[in-house]
Queue: 2 jobs
Job 1
Amino acid sequence: MISPAMFKGVDNGIVVLLNPDVSFEEIIDYLGKILEERKVFFSGAHLTVEPNGRDLTKQEIEELSELLKKFGISFSINGLGTITKKEIVETEKNNKDKTVIIDHTLRAGQVVNITGNVVVLGDINEGAEVTVTGNAYIFGMVRGIVNAGESVVSLGFKPLRMVIGKTVFDNNLSGKTYRKPRIAKVEDGKIIVKVLGEKKSLRR
């Protein structure tokens, strides 16, 4: 392997193979140049980083995260699982009305922290985590962890854990997908689920 890193297309995305024989600074410089040259192609993509025998330090992972976030890229590190969870979206704390759109499914190891609202055009898979101060709109199934300040709208609820405000979701109400989106919010100290726009709550 001659270059500091190599990009490989696979069935479920793009893998970045790191060269174990060069310095990490060389890898970062090389990735920065490639991503700048092809930023339109990589914007919004998810990369799987293959260390290829390198032992990445916490500082190196943070440096890699900052570089990829600059180009709107989320990532996971092969072999480290949920230990490598990184914030892939973070907004200014003083902008409570901001809405961030994520145009892909959130997979295991991905974390989103937002001051405001989020729209996810896909599922929140088990092992992914979303925290918002406002509302979460999920155009898919919730299987991971969701912490919302106000409400969660989804096509299905089967969360590992879901909290709205300080109230924990009762998983007895979950496990089903719907044609119409449902909204989960707190009423009378409990999280209830209703068809969006209707008054009737989901029965146990």
Job 2
Amino acid sequence: MQPKAAQVSVQAWESNGILLEQYAYTSGAVNPLPKHAHAEYQFGLSFDCQGEYFYRGAHHAIPKGSLSVIHSGEVHAPSDRASLPKPAHFGMAHIDPMWLQLVAEEMAEKRTRDPFFPTAFITDSELNRLFLTLQAATDRQNSKLEQETALWDFLTYLIANHASNQSAVQPVKPVHKAVEHARDYLHAHYADDISLEELAAIAGLSRFYFCRVFSKTVGISPGAYQTQLRIAQSRKLLAQGLPIANVVEMTGFYDHSHFGWHFKCQVGTTPGNYVRKIMFAR
């Protein structure tokens, strides 16, 4: 008896040469995809199912928890299996080569070739964490700084630790004045949708070096720091009695839901509960 066709749901986000997808399959019959190639680098992380790829003339089993890597322009095909015995969930990232080239050149401080990854998959828990952070951050609700910082952190780590043709990265030297300039700007413009390029220029550093030195000096990424500033200011405004809707707009959050999620993560309660406790205390 032919198994029932698997149901597939997809969430996708695309901007400026980056396509992120999250797939959820039920168990059931699936149609294998044909061999193909695309201009982007493709990265995939399976959460609960072993992946399979035909790539570089051979079949590769991709263990759960390993990041698959398909180079720009290389012919490949996913698994040729016709059914899934259990549900499967995985995330994908298709990234234009210009981003990897740009990050690699800033890391090397000179013109360089596209990064080359010699293996079909990489097993690295820190790389997985950065990939998942990229998947979570790159959403229209999040600030431009959060999105771009997540992309640069992921690509920097990937290239520095797993590209076979990357020059050694020099240790980070303290640049306290540069970090101070960036922090001062964020304090003054916390509600603005600041880009990583803009903030790095204010610090007088490349985006690659700025991300490294800021995180090393401050302890968190520039995007996370801006979000903390926004939440800190929102608490003051709520304590002054301003309506939540006004506070959301004044502090630069996308909407009430986005604000509420970050507020609860950092304060431990919802904005509504926070306001009620303030009112009760009075």
